[in-house]
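QA checklist item 7 of 12: single-chain prediction sanity check.
[x] sequence parsed
[x] length recorded as 191
[x] structure emitted
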Amino acid sequence: MATRKTTRKSELARAGEHLKTAAKEVGTAVSHKIENMGDRVSASVTNAKKKVLKRRDQAQRKIGSLVKKAEAQVAKAQAQLSKAGAAAERAVMSAEKKLEATKRRTGKKLASLQASAERKVRALQKAAGKQASAATKAAAPTKGAAKKSAAKKPAAAPATAKRAVAKKAAAKKPAAKKPAAKKTTAKKTAG
């Protein structure tokens, strides 16, 4: 029986060794499986990370291109705006120059018209004075009522002529603030 016990022990020992070996192999297989799963998970995470990074880079490139386009459009708009501003400024300066030239021309015309009107008034006054003196000379040799009526008629005519000429000159004269220039112009034309 002793042999039986040793046999049993040896069978149990062998069975234990087999279990131990099987457990080691199972442990190794499980650890390999876990490592493989970890590697697969790591690989899938790496792939996912690469995809995410790739998409991020694409998005950044798109955003960058959109930003560049927007900047180009802004620069173009600013250039157009500055051109338009410069054109408007030139137009304003041109209009101001034209206005100044028109003012100068108008002022010269006005001064010329005033001088002409003053010359005409003086000429009419001289003519009326000559007519009055001629009328008084012509009326001097006559006697009585004829003398008085003749003296009144020529004297009345130049006075009304003077008034009419003065009214016309006043109507033609606009209010201007250059009396010194008018006087010198009038003196030059009279002399």
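[x] summary fact logged: The mean pLDDT is 79.
[ ] second reviewer sign-off
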